[in-house]
Amino acid sequence: MSLPSHLVVVHSHWRPGGVRRVIEMALPAIVRRLPLQRLTFLGSGTCAPVPRIGDLETTILNEPACDYLDVPDGEALSRLQGVLGELLKAGDHTAVWFHNPALARNPFLCGTVRAFCAARSIPLVLHHHDFWCDGRWERWPILQRFGFSHPHDVAGTVFADGTRSVHVSINRPDAVLMESFFPGRSEIIPNPVMPSRDKEPDHFADDWLRQNIGHRPLWICPTRFLRRKNLLEALLLKRVLCPEACLATTSAGCSPGEARYAAQLRSTFGGEMKFGLAEECGAPPAEALLAGADVFVSTAVQEGFGLVWADAARLQKSLLARRLPNVDDDLRGMGFSFPHTYSELEVPSDCFDWKAEQDRLKDLQRAMMRQVPNDWREWIAPSQIPASAVFSGLTLEAQVEILRRPADRTARQLRRANPWLGEWQAQVEKKELQAPSGSPAGGMAPDSYAALFEQALKKIPPIPVHAPSACQGLQESLAKRSLENFARHPVLWA
Hints:
The protein is built from 18 helices and 15 strands. By secondary structure, the protein is an alpha/beta fold.
């Protein structure tokens, strides 16, 4: 296809981090590469995702109807139809870059983008960061409220069947599946990372940190409230390895679905952990705080790519990370090495009420099974309560219970159960934690990202493609992959 002169970037929200950060880093390079004359952002939130780029005509449309939507809303649908109907006009050399449609957090937005792109032959780049059928089973009852009677109906909507579209994935396992179902219509584009540069000391950021956290080491989780980040494991690691450190997240924002989790963490641990350091009054930019941190911590149970890992390498910061195969394997394949990763944090059963936790796990698994589509329940691996516990395999209630115990006693028990903790503690005390080796370059640089984005655009077919069986097959393959580990991380159900 010919390259567009107007790019419409669509995402449900412009909350800091995550998808917004990918867009912020990638767009300047994309604008330099493509013959764009207009750039339009459509999503909820009043903050511009990127600054104005040169003389390019830029429009930011703040439409609340784009945001996550759990209940059908006729007014929201009407607004979306009006906005997109005006924005997407046939023959206007427009292409749409639609982020995270398969998360299905706003079925109206997915359906409306699909309908206008199909009817008006608008080229569509579907950029997949996450999927509703990858462990987010609470979405199925919500999708049913929107009139989807079978997962097959969802597949056609979130994968935009019947459009001129290409599918972008951010890691190899997803890319392999995409290409098998959409041959010639998929592209892997790893998330961009800015190249490392020597910077002058940021005295303002240093002074601000001293005023707000004193001379304590700063251990940072670059995230907002997300259950999949498993933040209490980061707090537990900090207690064991460096009790005097200040553990902080960069953002305190959350979506409605994370509100209960966020409220419990704030009320229980808000005095010990700083939530939203970059959002405090007078704070320097998040990038300056990352540059001023001593240690990055990532204890997530689920990630699409792992920007925290790449950022730690870029900024040459020590990273303590729970190993995620898709993240670790992809980044190691790009030449990185991460010296401080671990598989699981073993927890002795006398650190909490193990019997009560087994009962909670059984009840929770039964409840969650009811949220999985009927036709998919046969793929759920037989439920087994493990004989021993790992922290990421516990319910939020058990995690909180462990953290409410005397910290010194728990730390001693954890060091006995996890000998590597003693080794890491000695390195922390001697200030000998190592930074990752390797440098974000090559395929992760913004200019390389823009080249891959152009390549994806050129794979968009000249006419709409109807492939309902491919959409359904991809969705079922993703669901099967997830259901093999159905009960592994109950914190996702908190």
